[in-house]
């Protein structure tokens, strides 16, 4: 082994040893500060932060990755910054004793890098939730309005009316106990599976309210036949649940799209 290779090996072992020591101090300080799930603390982002600190590199990029990793794991901002305070204490405190995490002692540029990494992920996740109802999996009315806006722009550019190519389908359930909300929403959860199986070619299926769904469907497929089949399948699915009782049949009706986008938005808002 050449002297250069020996130097590189020793340097790598030295860095690895220092990383392990920093990581251990950081973890101990974080757990002492209240980290609730010890087995979930470790991550690749932690290791990259330790290596950057030990090598004397600028840790800001790695701290952004740490904030993002914590957000992906569902850790709140307060917990993430408390963990950062534990790192700062491990970096600067007495290495021979137990270090104490103090969030107010962390320099602002470290807090900013970590918080921005956390916020980027939370913002991305929020956008994903915003377009989809978490219970039924159907898209929201906000998403349907966006799709209608795109559809009306396309119709205007092509010189056609929106109603020539698309229709709006309303699906309403009349479930007993709807005033409490729960039976209606549970029925809609069951109906949502049927809606996705019948309208399975990229149609926009949205939740208007707990007992009403709307479908933006192209006219290229036999919409009337699908609507009739949809009602039967939903009634059959709900009938399988003895806790859900219908006051009447599922109402499925096909509606023409209004000439203007503003009118279409007013129409779907009136159904919410």
Provide structural commentary:
- With 272 residues, the chain is an alpha+beta fold.
- It has 2 domains: 3-130, no CATH class; 141-270, Alpha-Beta Plaits (2-Layer Sandwich), CATH 3.30.70.270.
- The protein is 59% helix and 9% strand.
- The chain is built from 10 helices and 4 strands, in the order αααααααβαββαβα.
- Strands 2-3-1-4 form a 4-stranded antiparallel beta sheet, sandwiched between helices.
- The longest helix has 30 residues, at 3-32.
- It comes from Saccharopolyspora erythraea.
- This is GGDEF domain-containing protein.
CATH superfamily of the largest domain: Reverse transcriptase/Diguanylate cyclase domain
How much of the residues is beta strand, in percent?
5-15%
Secondary-structure element series: HHHHHHHEHEEHEH
Task: Report the strand count.
Answer: 4
CATH class of the largest domain: Alpha Beta
Q: Cα distance, first to last residue?
A: 75 Å
What structural class should be given to the helix and strand makeup? alpha+beta
Strand order of the largest sheet: 2-3-1-4
Largest sheet data: 4 strands, antiparallel
Relative helix content: 55-70%
Helix run count: 10
Radius of gyration from CA coordinates = 28 Å
Kindly identify the CATH topology of the largest domain. Alpha-Beta Plaits
What's the architecture of the largest domain in CATH terms?
2-Layer Sandwich
Q: Could you name the ranges where pLDDT drops below 50 across 5 or more consecutive residues?
A: none
**Rounded mean pLDDT score:** 84
The dominant shape is elongated
Kindly give the count of domains: 2
């Amino acid at each position: 082994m050449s002297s250069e290779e020996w130097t590189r090996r020793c340097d790598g072992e030295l860095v690895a040893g220092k990383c392990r020591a920093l990581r251990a101090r950081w973890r101990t300080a974080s757990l002492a500060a209240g980290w609730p799930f010890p087995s979930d603390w470790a991550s690749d982002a932690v290791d990259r932060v330790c290596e950057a600190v030990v090598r004397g590199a600028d840790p800001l990029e790695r701290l952004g990755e740490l904030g993002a990793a914590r957000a992906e794991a569902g850790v709140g901002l307060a917990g993430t910054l408390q963990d950062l305070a534990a790192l700062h204490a491990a970096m600067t405190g007495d290495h021979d004793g137990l270090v104490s995490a103090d969030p107010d002692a962390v320099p602002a540029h470290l807090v900013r890098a970590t918080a921005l990494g956390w916020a980027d992920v939370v913002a991305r996740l929020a956008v994903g939730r915003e377009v989809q109802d978490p219970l039924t999996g159907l898209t929201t009315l906000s998403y349907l309005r966006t799709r209608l806006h795109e559809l009306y722009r396309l119709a205007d550019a092509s010189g056609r009316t929106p109603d020539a190519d698309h229709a709006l389908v309303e699906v309403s359930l009349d479930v007993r106990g709807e005033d409490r909300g729960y039976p209606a929403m549970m029925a809609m959860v069951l109906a949502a599976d049927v809606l996705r199986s019948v309208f399975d070619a990229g149609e926009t299926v949205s939740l208007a309210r707990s007992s009403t769904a709307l479908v933006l469907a192209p006219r290229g497929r036999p919409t009337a036949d699908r609507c009739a089949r949809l009602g039967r399948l939903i009634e059959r699915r709900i009938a399988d649940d003895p806790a859900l009782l219908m006051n009447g049949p599922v109402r499925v009706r096909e509606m023409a799209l209004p000439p203007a986008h503003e009118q279409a938005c007013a129409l779907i808002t009136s159904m919410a």
